[in-house]
Amino acid sequence: MKKRPVITIDGPAGAGKSTISRILAERLSFIYLDTGALYRAMAYRLNSEGWDGTDESLIKLCRRIKVEMRKVTGQLRVFADGEDVTQRIRTEEIGLLASRVSAAPAVREVLLSVQRAMAVEGGLVAEGRDMGSVVFPDAEVKFFLDASARERASRRYLELTERDDVCLQEIEDDLLRRDSQDRNRPIAPLIIPPDAVIIDSTDKTISQVVDIVLSAIENSGHLPACKK
After folding, report:
1. Which of 74, 127, 133, 195 is the most buried (most CB within 10 A)?
2. Beta strand 124-128 with 83-84: parallel, antiparallel or unpaired?
C-alpha cells in the first residue's frame, strides 16, 4: 500500500497555519505536528532555567532538556522535561524567545529528530517556518500560508483579548519583529519552498482556505478525493 503523504504548511506567525493544519489533519485522519509548539516548549524551559543568552549555556541546557509530544486522550500535547506545557507556552514572550532560538544549532539538533520521527510512516500534517524547506524537503505536498501583517495582528489580538489586556499595535510590532528574525536568521530562514502552493489568507475565511488546500492535495494525486 502506498504510504500516506507528508503535508507541510509554512508561513509567518499569525497566518493561520495552526488552525488550517488542525482542520486538515482531522479531515484526513492524519497526525498534526505543531512544530512551533516544540520550539516554544524549548524556549519555555530555557526561560525557566534562567538562560543567560550565551551560546555556551544554551548548548549545556539543550543537552539535558527533553521536549516531546505525547498523545493524551486522543490529542497530542507538548511536554518539556515531563511537564505538560501545552497551554503555558502560548504567550508573546515565549513566542519571541522561540523565534530567537529556533535557528540555534543546539536547539535544532534536539528537535529535528523529534519532528522527523513522527513522519516515518507518513500521514502527517506539519506546520512551522521551515517544514517544506528544511525539515521535510521531500514532502509530497507543500503549502506556504501568508496574510498581511495587520490581518495577522488582528487575529492574534482577538485570541489574546480573551486572556490579557493587550494592544493591537504592540502585537503587530511584535509580529513584524518575529518576521524579521525568522526571515533573516542565518540557519533555516523562513522562505517559500519553490514547489509550495502559495495561499494569501488575508481576505479569506477559514473554510475558503481549507477548500483551497484540500483541492490542491486532491489535484496532486497523492490522495483519493478529499472529504470537504
Report:
1. 127
2. unpaired
Does some domain include residue 226? no
95 near 50, Cβ under 8 Å?
no
List the domain range (segments joined by +) for residue 34: 6-216
Gyration radius of the chain over CA positions: 17
What is the rounded CA–CA span in Å between residue 125 and residue 31?
A: 6
Does residue 152 sit in helix, strand or coil? helix
What is the count of structural domains for the chain?
1
The CA-based angle 56-57-58, given to 5 degrees, is: 90
Q: Are 9 and 30 in contact, with CB atoms under 8 Å apart?
A: no
Q: Does residue 12 fall inside a structural domain?
A: yes
CATH number of domain containing 198: 3.40.50.300
Asked if 120 and 4 touch (Cβ cutoff 8 Å), the reply is no
Q: Which pTM value belongs to this model?
A: 0.80
Contact 198, 144 (CB under 8 A): yes
Q: Look at residue 92 and tell me if it is in a domain.
A: yes
pLDDT at res. 65:
93
Residue 92 C-alpha cell reads as: 508573546
Q: What is the pLDDT of residues 3-54, one digit of tens each?
A: 789 999 999 988 999 899 999 999 999 999 988 899 999 999 999 999 999 9
Sorted by sequence, the CB contacts under 8 Å of residue 147 that are 6+ apart come out as: 14, 15, 16, 155, 200, 201, 202
